[in-house]
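Proteins fold reproducibly. Take a tokenised chain:

. . .
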Amino acid sequence: MLNNYLHRLYDTIHSRRYIEVEEFVSDSRSNRRGSVTGLLKFYDGSLLDFGEVLIVRNRQIVKLRYRYHYQKNSGEVIFRYDNAPHYPGISTFPHHKHVGSAVEPTQLPDLNEVIREIEQMLFPSA
């Protein structure tokens, strides 16, 4: 189950030919615990730095920790999703999204959803 999830992430990234994979490291220490980290570069030089720490619980993948940090090539942060427990007053605690200096409630994102959000920024419809 965990290996299937990690392979799906790999396939999600590599199916998009415009993404340059600078780093992709998955580690499944057992069939119940693992992690994945990566650094993806987009055609405009922007970067997505991500990481997930995972366990299998009750036949489900659970993200213990995650971060999806998207920034321009200048280093300016565009957005960051994470579940660090430092905003207990937010309705979706611990899940939240940083956009500029604002912190917004959000549901647990999936890497594919994050990449789709970036695609909407990079390839706006006419």
